[in-house]
Structure formats: C-alpha cells, structure tokens
Amino acid sequence: MMLRGLFFSFLVAGLVMPAYAQKCDASKSATAPFSQFSDTAAATITDKKNKNTWLRCPVGMSWDGSSCTGISLKYTWSEAVVEVEELNQKKLAGRNDWRLPTVDELATVVEKRCFKPAIDLKAFPYSPESGFWTDTAVDGVQPRAWVVHFLNGNPYVANKNQTWRLRLIAGK
After folding, report:
1. Alpha carbons 6 and 19: distance in angstroms, whole number
2. Cβ(75)–Cβ(166) below 8 Å
C-alpha cells in the first residue's frame, strides 16, 4: 500500500521534531474529493454531488480566506443544539439555517482513502482527529446520538453528555 502523508515539524526544547498528519492511500480512488465541492473561497463550501452547504471550519474557528483560525470547541449534545440556535441568531456566515447534520449527511464528507483525519483538507482545511456530533439519535437507547469520528471516518454511538465538535450544514 502506498501512503502519502503531509509532514510537519515543530520546535521542542530547541529541536525540530517531526509530526505526521493526514495519511492517504494514493492507490485508492477518492470518495469525497475536493472536485466534488464548489470552492467559494468563503466560510462555506457546497457539495455539488449532494447539494449540501457546509461550514468549512469546525464551530469555534473562523475562515480567514484560505484556512481556519482559532480553536475548535467541544460541546455536549444539548450544548450543541443551543450553540447552533445562537449561531443562527448571529447569522453565522450570513445564514440563519445552520443545523447539526444527520449521520448520513456527515458521512458524505468522509474521505475513506485517508485517515488522521478522514476528510479532504482542501475542502475542510482544519479537521481534528475527533468526533463530530450529528442530530441522529440512537433508536431505543437514550441519551445517545451518533458521531462521525474523523480519525478514521467511522460513525460511533456517543453518550449525549460527552463533548464532541461541530461541523454544521445549512438548510433543509
């Protein structure tokens, strides 16, 4: 298997230490390539295939025209619902129709040939190797909801009292 990865360095006690980030298997076809998205160079990006508009940065971060800046925040599920309402009142990115995506919607941005994180970093330039809340509750098991974890792109059941990040979708 051929792996392609991004390589970064950081300074620790005067030494440059390597840190590896996203790894992608170049021999596999992309499942959610950048070409699938309309790059508006704005805080949002539209999935041409699924017709969904996404906030490019996790909640807590801001789009600076080329990347995400700030700190990606974590919320319990109920805090996430309140935060989305507040962001809609503030018209985040000029919109007031943001919401948590369904587990199926969030899965459409997973790049299955990549991990750490499992997402196209051109479309979503900052995506921590973390879980992101969905609005999909787990049938018969409360208080649980689905998260999609971008370490590997898999969905997991999470307790709504845990804290996870938010990647918002607009409309519908």
Report:
1. 9
2. yes
Amino acid at 28: K
108 three-class SS: coil
DSSP per-residue codes, 70-81: E----B-HHHHH
CA distance 45 to 26: 24
**How many C-beta neighbours within 10 Å does residue 41 have?**
9
Q: What string of pLDDT tens digits covers the 172 residues of the chain?
A: 344 444 333 333 343 333 447 899 999 999 888 888 987 768 999 999 899 999 999 999 999 988 999 999 999 999 999 999 999 999 999 999 999 999 999 999 999 999 999 999 999 988 899 999 999 999 887 899 999 999 999 999 999 999 999 999 998 7
3-class DSSP state of 150: coil
Give the fold, CATH level 3, of 35-170: Mannose-Binding Protein A; Chain A (3.10.100)
SS3 assignment, position 168: coil
Residues recorded for the chain: 172
Structure tokens at 64: 């600076």
Nearest partner of 110 among 53, 84, 148, 76, judged by Cα: 148
Gap between the Cα atoms of 85 and 98, Å rounded = 8
